[in-house]
Amino acid sequence: MIFEQKELQLEPFKRGFHLITEIILNQFPEIKKIEKGILKVFIKHTSASVSINENADPTVRSDFESHFNIMVPENASYYTHTYEGSDDMPAHIKASLLGSSIEVPITDGKLNMGIWQGIYLCEHRNFGGSRKLILSAFGV
Known about the structure:
Layout: E1 2-10, E2 16-19, H1 21-27, E3 36-43, E4 48-54, H2 58-71, H3 88-98, E5 101-107, E6 110-111, E7 117-123, E8 131-139
Antiparallel strand pairs: 1-8, 2-7, 3-5, 3-8, 4-7, 5-6
């Protein structure tokens, strides 16, 4: 059994949905050691999330941002957690909806995703800053 783990600190991204598949692959080459296994990506934040979705058409990512902003608006009158800015409570809700981790199969040292799939960093704050990911790869 092989088990590799690494903490990856991402540069700050603007608010929105960003493909980070290549960043992960470039920063975590240990994936290549695994013939059959799993990559788990966990984000250590409560106002950003990770997801898997469309990797080709960038309008999908902008549509996600637009839809989430309508679905979870800023300045809702019922929010009581407001002291960190108008984007903070919606960011927590969006992060809970999308989740803090994903799993991807590893086959023959490569991520075994669909041809149109990529890993997203979902930045829900206007100025979220640098984000940390824990990457865990395990298998044989």
